[in-house]
């Protein structure tokens, strides 16, 4: 069992919405961190049926409870009308609710009560390196960081079932798309462009659907927490910059399954792409958990010079390379970026075991050193 970095109690001055993709470990985290809380599991058939028929049962159950009461409702999107009763109990009794689910889409798109700011939105990500004793970068790159699969001997089989459940229960059951076959083709096409600049027209051609449909499909992936967009850094000094976002799936293991990569071999191009994705995954989680004000973006010029990650307003620029020996050719993007942003801290994250600083002050950090600095809060 993993001890999670995210301590939800720090955000429990008010009620919270805790969202996260399936099998990120939401329920386990809640039971670990709040063992004395009241717990309502809407995946339980009988409980679901009762509250679906009569949501006011929740109010009746807690109408006389004290403001010290903590109530967890797991899979809240199963009975959205419960949110009206939650709203009443927060307003009248000051009860703290932790409302847990794998998607905010159903609540937001159908106009259900989202508590008018009375519940703080929080997100649980897959495992991060700081949560894993003896963290193994090669295992993470191949298996991904979802708790059941990072430790699995055959993560590929488990991830096959994961995608099947996602399609059946998140997409088909909620009628989010009209044609499931089209959406499955889109998933495959999106995986091929994971970590790349989004081109809706090209993906639409591959999937035999319109560009507008592809935009809607990407929106579904974001709303169901299966992926996210990383915006372009657009502060222009001299060079003309690309403006379109990049898309990343929320976990590299999911990408590996969709691309039929049963094993990602170190030294290959596939490993390089997966390594970059994993580092971005760690940055996204760190910024999310710490509510860091520095936004994450990427930088690319119209001529193709690129930096993988930019933190804040050019505070830090990070290039991610799976090379085991960093050479001058790997520093081209960072040097171009610093021509326009000379005060920027420039870092290369790689498999080069010797962490050091070049003569022009570019930091070369071994992946394990970088991750340690990140999660210790010493990077930014």
What would you note in describing this structure?
The protein has 380 residues and is an alpha/beta fold. 39% of the residues lie in helices and 16% in strands. The strands form three sheets. It has a six-stranded mixed sheet with strand order 8-9-10-11-13-12, with helices on both faces. It has a five-stranded parallel sheet with strand order 2-3-4-1-5, with helices on one face. Helix 9 packs across helix 10 and helix 10 (200-207) packs across helix 11 (211-223). The two termini are 29 Å apart. The mean pLDDT is 93.
The Rg value, from CA coordinates, equals 22 Å
What portion of residues belong to β-strands?
A: 15-25%
* Overall SS class: alpha/beta
Low-confidence stretches: none
Helix/strand order: EHEHHEHEHEHHHHHHEEHHEEEHEEEH
How many individual β-strands? Answer: 13
Major beta sheet summary: 6 strands, mixed
Instruction: Write down the overall mean pLDDT.
Output: 93
Q: Number of DSSP helices? A: 15
Helix share bin:
25-40%
What separation lies between the terminal Cα atoms?
29 Å
Instruction: Sum up the overall morphology in one term.
Output: globular
The spatial strand order of the largest sheet comes to 8-9-10-11-13-12
